[in-house]
Amino acid sequence: MIFNYCKTTDAYKIEYANPRFFVPLDKIYLGIAAQSSIDELSKEIPEPKTVITDFKKTCLNFYIETIKQIVQRFHFSDPLYGILDVIEPSVAQKFEVKDLSNVLKRFPSVKEQINEMELQKEWKKHAFLDHNDLAKMNYYLSIVVYVNHRHDEDLNQHHQ
Which superkingdom heads the taxonomic lineage of this protein's source (predicted)? Predict the structure, then answer.
């Protein structure tokens, strides 16, 4: 997708299947290993452009189908996504949200397994973390992953 379009459009409103917003096939980035293989293939076969173009079209169709399946499976209108913004490092560090009570209300299974007072202390400490410190960020992100895992469990129970 065109970078500026993605950057300036609300993520939930991106027209992921609209070719108008696709980068040209020769600009699709598939990763270092794939590009290395493509470069090698280009040297070995007589008509590499056709094969490579077909391959990139297949990848593009895969990306589109992947996003389509994600959109079908997740309920992005769930107010949870507004609540979880608070744990985004750049938002959390502003410390506009002084406690995590709304998050705990939404995730009762998390509340059962933690000490709420300790969580609030950690939350306050978080506002002063140096987000450039990789070790601290890895610890923080491990907590985020745990909360997301619990969210998936809660959603599955909620939608049954």
Answer: Eukaryota
Asked if residue 12 has pLDDT above 70, the reply is: yes
Sign of CA dihedral 36, 41, 43, 48: negative
- Length of the chain measured in residues: 160
User: What does the DSSP 8-state code read for residue 24?
Assistant: P
The CA–CA distances, whole Å, from 154 to 83, 107, 123, 157 equal 14, 7, 22, 5
> To which residue do tokens 């173009």 refer?
53
Which tokens belong to 34? Answer: 């794939």
The whole-angstrom separation of Cα 84 and Cα 88 is: 7
> Does residue 115 register a pLDDT over 90?
no
| Separation between Cα atoms, residue 105 and residue 145, nearest integer Å | 18
- For residues 19 and 30, give the distance between their C-alpha atoms in angstroms, rounded to a whole number: 18
